[in-house]
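Worked example

This section walks through a single chain of length 157. The input is the sequence exactly as stored; nothing has been trimmed or padded.
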Amino acid sequence: MSIQSVRAFLAEHAPEIEILEATTSTATVALAAAAHGIEPDRIAKTLSLRLDGEPILIVMSGESRLDNRKFKDRFGAKAKMLGAEDVLEATSHPVGGVCPFGLPRPLRVYADVSLRRFDVVVPAAGSPQSALRIAPERLVQLTHAEWVDVAQASAAT
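Given that input, the structure is written out below as tokens.
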């Protein structure tokens, strides 16, 4: 189970971070926000895309949307989302539980600047019922992510 790979990753790299397990599904931003009693934008959703034939992950605030123009300007290619089977193969996490922790092999991870306005965000932790609380800078440090600006501008940012 992929939550186990996240547990193993955290045990090795960040033993102070606890996995939170909800009794209900947290597979969508709205469900996760309700389960954890936080605003939806504090959910750190992980998008799985293909770039130059390889999967990449982009973590962004919950209500943010990918800006295709910004993505193309930054990466020189059109944004192509992975299908559910490809997501599971690339990350070992099912859709609804995808996170940049406990991956079966290193992937390029990017953190959108939409996360920077929060002291703590809540990404999934490998299953549709699990999550963790983490500072955005710590998430970047643990995953060797690179900051990018690929979310659509919103009134909140």
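What to look for: The helical segments are 2-13, 29-36, 68-75, 84-91, 136-143.
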